Amino acid sequence: MDKMDLWKKALSLRKELGEDTTSPIDIFALAYTIEKLSIVYYPMGNNISGVCIRGTGNNVVAINSTMTLGRQHFSMAHELYHLYFDD
Which site among 18, 44, 63, 76 is 20 to 30 Å from 53 CA-CA? Predict the structure, then answer.
């Protein structure tokens, strides 16, 4: 997948979630608005930043609470990508 494909997916998801295409996003506030998504903050090993578990009735994103806030932001966005775009 090239950068243009990623850009198109990002714009599409922003629209789907009610965000405009240019404003900064509070990724945590946005994640809490997603139906059937449970968010867990838990201390994990240094080699795990986050985990996405897709289920039939509910989905879970777990974020490593020992990571820096910047890393947690990145991890939330990364795990949401898995939630919406992985097959």
Answer: 18
